[in-house]
Specification:
The complex is a heterodimer.
Chain A: H1 6-31, H2 34-50, H3 58-87, H4 103-110, H5 114-125, H6 130-137, H7 141-163
Helix pairs in contact in A: 1-2, 1-3, 2-3, 3-5, 5-6, 5-7, 6-7
Chain B: H1 7-12, H2 25-51, E1 61-63, E2 73-75, E3 119-125, E4 131-136, E5 152-157, E6 165-167, E7 183-186, E8 192-195, E9 199-202, E10 210-212, E11 218-225, E12 228-236, E13 247-256, E14 263-264, E15 287-290, E16 294-298, E17 304-308, E18 316-317, E19 343-348, E20 351-356, E21 364-369, E22 377-382, E23 388-393, E24 399-403, E25 406-410, E26 423-426, E27 436-441, E28 447-451, E29 458-462, E30 470-473
Antiparallel strand pairs in B: 1-2, 3-4, 4-5, 5-6, 7-8, 8-9, 9-10, 11-12, 12-13, 13-14, 15-16, 16-17, 17-18, 19-20, 20-21, 21-22, 23-24, 24-25, 25-26, 27-28, 28-29, 29-30
Classes of the chains: A mainly alpha, B mainly beta.
Chain lengths: 164, 475
Amino acid sequence: MGTFRASDRLAAEELFHACYPRLAGWIRRLVDDDDTAHEIASEAFTRLLARWSSLDNPQSYLYMIATNLIRDHWRKVGRERRALRAVSATVPAEAVHHPAEDVDVRALIQGLPDRLRQPFLLHYYAGFPIRDVAEMLGRPEGTVKADLHHARAKLRAVLGEAHG
Amino acid sequence: MDEPRDDIDAWLEERVTPLLPRPDAFERVRKRARRRKLGRAAMAAAAAAVVVAGAIAVPRLILNGPIGGTPTVALGSTTPAQHSSTGPGRPQATGTPRRDHTAAAPTPPAAPPVPPNFAVSSVTFVSAATGWVLGQAGTPGQCGPPNPDICTSVAATGSAGATWHGVPAPVTGPPDGGAGVSQIRSLDGASGWAFGPQLYVTHDGGRSWTKIPTHGMRVTDLETVNGLAFAVWARCTGAGADFAATCTSFSLYSSAANGNSWSPVPGMTGLTTSPVPGQPGQPSAAQLVLTGTRGYLLAPDGNVYSGPVTAGAAWQPAVASGSPPPGCGTPGPAQPDGVPSNTMLAATGPGLVELCLTHSPGRKFLAYSADDGRTWTPAGYAPGAGQATSLSGSPAGQVLVATSSGIDVSRTAAGLAPYGLSWHTSVQGASVPGGFSYVGMTTAQQGVAIPADTSLHAVWFTYDGGRRWVESPVR
């Protein structure tokens, strides 16, 4: 315990350099902030390396951690926003403007229930095939397909309302 | 899912723009992970101490590191192996096996010198500092015992090439048809393999080597990662130094790195150029590439097979067997070191790159795949000078090509340069006549190359991602 064999270190370093840019880029799309993206990606790798020797599929584990950290970040930001609104309740509400063009879709994905959001992020963003997502989440492939279908339908419906 | 396209589709199909790590990000992450791991261990130990209130046997720390490598710390009592085999062409290692009963590191014995005239044919690094080279050394006819003509030798560095010392080698000659060895790989400085065409293994940092029976097959490639070794076993008839020439059937075998039991990887036996299963087809080559999570084999028919680097896992072809391979095509005949001469495969960044030498006559065409070899996109051409001998990728996505006139290193990362890679040529032919036979990256910054002219008795290192290379004499 506590030692990291040279071969492990090489493999971990290789995985880091191979996966970090895409993982951090993927996170940035979801949190819209470079610093937060680096923070989450680094934390995901830290947790991965701390459990390195017991993992069969490090890449899946990495994206699962990142997905959970993104969810936590969204919750925290949501709480802060609510607190800010409460404090400034007397001030006329200003429309929240987000510089990113894709803020609508991101905000909608934040609103998906966990059960639908996880497979959605892993399949559509991280690019894992349905079979891998099913294995990662411990659900049958058919359930994952249905979850993805429901997630898209939900997003489309909300998007339609928003634009209608 | 056939659903109408909408804003969601458009957003999902947007390409993720990679966000490069900040300097030293990996080191910071690694240290933070280590602290957490130690913290968890301390908490577990504290909890155990509460439960076990009896006498505690303190384990002894035995320092029994590999020769030249970083000592590893093991719990319990271990007796280091005797020198059961000493490579010809060098003095017997002077260190005697030692047993240390304290936690303090003993004074290491003086490292044996590198035998003279070391002609390097292969190099392997297990960390930025620790690596081995294999080649022929000494003076033929004076290498003895047991055979004065056997000069196969191994040397190691624990200082990234600043100094080298001798290590016992397998008792076999240079490649000669089905006999001898020419290549070396190591997983961790303790377990290592000498191969091409015979297969030898050490589990004690090179102190002793064991010959692995391959039942008439020749080992033409071998890589190791995650506690496993994978090797290409081929049926060949090539004579003399061309041990990997005229190979017609290839199989992928694997073994636990700490074991000697090799078995075929499911789905990876009897690979040939022939579309008819069981038919030998034309002579060809195969090339193995491993990453931390996945392995790839450029098969003799040009298809790329891949699978997880876990014991017993099956590998799958990128396209259905019998379909035209989507990449560069067949790897062609093997070079003297077993590497294909027409198509070469390497892992780079998050994807794969192929160097295609028959795609456009006289030019070095490159293709990139981000989906395990199923689809390939053009990645431009490498500089035209020289004949390509070796292809490599860096963890950061750079591509390196060793040629008979130097080393070409891409400035841009494969997969991120839609109009082709831009290149920098390092080590012009004038300074290293004959160019290089091998190039490989140990980390994103550090790499090593072997000159084609083995009488230079040296390898070359880069410590800045391939921009500058410096000579490291193996002596």
